[in-house]
Amino acid sequence: MITKPKGTYDLLGKDARIYNYLSNVIDNYMDNYNYDLIRTPIFEASELFHRSVGETTDIVTKETYDFKDRGDRDITLRPEGTAGVVRSVIENKLYGNRNDVLKYYYLGTMYRYERPQSGRNREFTQFGVEAFNSDDPMLDAEVISVGYNLLQELDIPDITVKLNTLGDLESRKNYTEALVKYLKPHINELCEDCQRRLETNPLRILDCKYDRSLEKGRAILDKAPRINDYLTKESADRFKQLQKNLTLLDVDFEIDPNIVRGLDYYDHNVWEYVTKEGVTLGGGGRYNNLVETLGGPHLPAVGFAMGLERIILELNKVIEERFIEKQLDVYIMSVSEEEKLTALKLAQEFRLNNLRTEINTANLGLKSQFKIADGLKAKFLIILNNEDLKKGLINVKDNVTKEETKVDEKDILDWLMINI
Ligand code: HAM
Question: 108-130: per-residue pLDDT in tens?
Fold first, then answer.
């Protein structure tokens, strides 16, 4: 038997229905915020991710799916959505009108070679939002609230936005120096990854799950210097302004100096959406320099992404009836050739009128059809028989009350519409 690759999954039954429901909710919801859908390729030139996500990040060093195509090009399956959107904004010169704030959202599969566990897959789906061409914390507040309010709309309880700032270049440089100076004497007490990070990406040490799980590591990290003490006045003011805006919007946030994010393109505000059990459903931040880094004009930007699989796991906990059982409106039973032809024709008419309909396409006997109809929780059964058909009549049975009625063939659709 050929099995699915490790870290992938088949979305079946209820979960597949939740996925569909989610993508519909997202489309309608984003329309109210005036964001446009953007679809970019699932694979891009490898260089795009090296230059945006960052050469030394875990994603680029350990997790990308890289390959050479038949034309000897270096290609990578996208590990995230931001880089592709930025590439598209630059390539299509979407910033033509310099005053427009560009607002996009996307929903698509991403690929990371990670160790699979609950809510962590190698193929997963992100819903993401990217907004360009404003440096105002008001836009950060709007973007943060898009994600926060969506989770509220979905009735996922107790979401907190964990908020931090990485400041501007100067704040970050001063802070990184102080952090490295503090951590150096403790280097041998940190995990191997963090020993390497001290050279390549010291801020990432702050959110090392492994070191934090050990008492020794936690004690070291808890006493580390805080970015807040190294912010330039401009960065500090901007962070305060954002908090003011979020309070106005009733976003439940909490400042967490350990949120540093795993991608290199961020500056200033960064945040994560976290459940009360500590599951991170999404994260994002401002990235004012990425468009320029990738060869575009100076175009400040801010965005976030959420993992749909993680949202589906949460929705499973607060699941609503409608996802659990799919109910059929009508099952049409047929045995003889004439009955089968009538069933085929009627089913099409019903389906085109939004009635969820099923017929016997497997040449089953009546008894099996009754069983299948019950299994599908059919509200009505149409039990076709040659004699009724000759008189232009259809026999309908209410599958709950078991009451049977003969209806004129030409009136059957109307009858069902009224009675369902
Ligand atoms: P990220 O934090 O790497 O950010 O991913 C965002 C979300 O994607 C995570 O919080 C999680 O829900 C989901 N996710 C990530 N990896 C996996 C995985 N292996 N399996 C399942 N779900 C996963 C970004 O990707 C940035 N591009 C977000 C962003 C947009 N920043 C600015 N704009």
Answer: 999 999 999 999 999 999 999 99
Angle between helices 137-153 and 13-32 (to 10 degrees): 140
Strand ranges across the sheet with 65-68: 43-45, 74-77, 65-68
Helix (H, G, I), strand (E, B) or coil at 367: helix
Nearest CA, atom 16, ligand 1 = 120
8, 63, 110, 123, best to mutate for ligand 1 pocket (most atoms within 8 Å of CB): 110
Atom number, ligand 1, closest to the C-alpha of residue 310: 12
Question: Ligand 1 mean position to 302 CA, how many Å?
Answer: 14
Q: Is 126 in the pocket of ligand 1 (CB under 6 A)?
A: yes
Residues 6+ away with beta carbon under 8 Å from 354 = none
Q: Is 259 helix (H, G, I), strand (E, B) or coil?
A: coil
pTM of the model: 0.89
**Is the beta carbon of 151 within 6 A of some atom in ligand 1?**
no
Picking from 31, 39, 139, the residue whose alpha carbon sits closest to that of residue 88 is: 39
Q: What domains are there in the chain, each with its CATH number?
A: 13-163+253-318 (3.30.930.10), 169-231 (no CATH), 330-419 (3.40.50.800)
